[in-house]
Design brief:
This protein is an alpha+beta fold. It is built from eight helices and 13 strands. It has helices at 2-7, 13-36, 43-71, 78-100, 111-132, 144-170, 222-226, 253-256; strands spanning 105-106, 109-110, 184-185, 209-213, 216-220, 230-238, 242-252, 265-270, 275-279, 287-292, 295-296, 306-308, 321-327. Helix 2 (13-36) runs antiparallel to helix 3 (43-71), helix 3 packs across helix 6 (144-170) and helix 4 packs antiparallel against helix 5.
């Protein structure tokens, strides 16, 4: 009996599947959160994502045995399972490439962008796989032994994360210079847009910024904004994997909106229809920029005006701004990632 227990695998197939599912959930949740983090204080979110990824790697040897047994059954859905496995491996490999910095682009696409894309494409297949082969929790799964194993795996993952960062720095790999978000520095901001935004045709001579506050609606020209201009240094960190620190010149939103009254949020609207909602407590740190690095904004960079939101990722930096509107709607009444 004792010999039989000793020879038993440490993880059963069900236990392995549960462990991998939990690790993937942690990786996905922390990954989504890390896409929204831009301020240095959020480093722990991206660190948690790295540790979760290593947790997935730690479970893979046990999962490999489960996969080999499953392939022998020749199920009709085997092809979909292999596609899912390929996408998850691609997600891990692109993540590793981003950490080391050894690969920056593939076919002109940023490696971090490919990492996120592979993870997102895998989501529906992962949901299907979890529903088609459910690994239900049992009371024994909440035992002290399970908690100790989970704690040991977590500790190994955190230690592995620290060790990998030291290794990358010690070897002088390109990834050592990346920002805590995983983004690499570029000399100037790259013309990018959120989803399908396209630069609208704007005549600066006739363009007017619509400002809506408690006193009503005002319309300001570029010349009027120029009379209120100030310059600030801020870092634009794009979720596609690059960042750039620049001098931005424009108008503080606290100057444009000195009296918020009972408003709880500010809606920043683009001529394309895209918009974000921010808390009014952020006004002092926000800037409506009309130039960058001493040059007027180009069309692809948001001419005639774009939002500068220090500490937030690039999709908050609305381009082609045409309206600022104070609102009683709370700032949290929005999607974490604007969809329009």
């Amino acid at each position: 009996m004792d010999a039989h227990r000793t020879a038993r695998p440490r993880f059963t197939a069900r236990g392995t599947n549960l462990a991998l599912l939990a690790a993937l959930l942690l990786a996905y949740l922390s990954g989504a959160a890390s896409e929204a983090v831009g301020a240095p204080g959020g480093w722990w979110v991206t660190s948690a994502h790295g540790a979760a990824a290593l947790l997935v790697v730690a479970v893979l040897p046990a999962k490999r045995r489960v996969v080999v047994r499953g392939l022998r059954r020749a199920r009709a859905t085997r092809g979909l399972s292999l596609v899912l496995a390929g996408l998850l491996v691609a997600t891990l490999l692109t993540g590793l490439a981003s950490v080391t910095g050894l690969v920056r682009t593939v076919a002109s696409l940023g490696i971090l962008w490919l990492h996120v894309a592979a993870a997102l494409v895998a989501v529906p297949l992962l949901v299907w796989h979890a529903l088609a082969r459910p690994a239900r929790l049992r009371r024994t799964d909440l035992s002290r032994r399970t908690a100790l194993r989970a704690g040991a795996l977590g500790a190994v993952s955190v230690a592995g994360l620290g060790g990998s960062e030291l290794l990358v720095a010690g070897l002088g790999l390109p990834g050592a210079t990346r920002r805590f978000t995983g983004s690499v520095e570029v000399p100037t901001p790259t013309p990018t847009s959120w989803l399908d935004d396209r630069a609208p045709a704007v005549d600066g001579a006739t363009w007017r910024l619509r400002v809506v506050d408690a006193e009503g609606t005002r319309r300001l020209s570029l010349a009027e904004l120029a009379g209120l201009a100030t310059t600030r240094r801020a870092t634009l960190d794009c979720t596609s994997g690059w960042y750039s620190e620049q001098e931005w010149t424009g108008v503080s939103l606290a100057t444009l909106l000195p009296d918020v009254g009972t408003a709880r949020s500010l809606l920043v609207h683009s001529a394309t229809g895209y918009s974000v909602r921010l808390p009014v407590t952020d006004l002092g740190g926000l800037l409506l920029a009309t130039s960058v690095a001493g040059e007027p904004l180009g069309a692809l960079h948001g001419y005639p005006a774009r939002l500068v939101a220090p500490g937030r990722r690039g999709f908050w930096w609305v381009k082609w701004v045409d309206r600022l509107e104070l609102s009683a709607t709370p700032a949290w009444w929005r999607s974490p990632f604007p969809l329009t």
